[in-house]
Each structure stands twice: as structure tokens, then as C-alpha cells.
Amino acid sequence: MEHIGNYLGTIILIIIGFLAIKKITSCLFKAVVGVILLAIAAYLLANTGLISSF
């Protein structure tokens, strides 16, 4: 339970990213933004120690 703030922050990041992508019309741009957001989320999770596979 000590990492609940990190989990909530990650969930909020994913929701904001999803809403931002939903507003964009180009499919290729959606894919690029999605990959970037996933990379940022993985980086943040790895640096906080929630995942250790990276």
C-alpha cells in the first residue's frame, strides 16, 4: 500500500493519454503518441521500483 500514489499517478497518466489520443484524428500519430506514453509510463514505473524488468 506504500506505492498507492505511484499507482494512482500512473492510472491518471494513462487516462489523460487515452483522452488526448482519442481527440487526435491521424491513426499514425495515435500510434506514435501511444508508444511514447507507454514508454514514459514504463520508465516511471521502473524508476519508482514498481517493476524491475527494465
UniProtKB/TrEMBL annotation:
Transmembrane parts of this sequence: 6-21, 28-46
Keywords from the named record: Membrane, Transmembrane, Transmembrane helix
Protein name as annotated: Sulfate transporter
The organism of origin for this protein: Prevotella disiens
Organism ancestry: Bacteria, Pseudomonadati, Bacteroidota, Bacteroidia, Bacteroidales
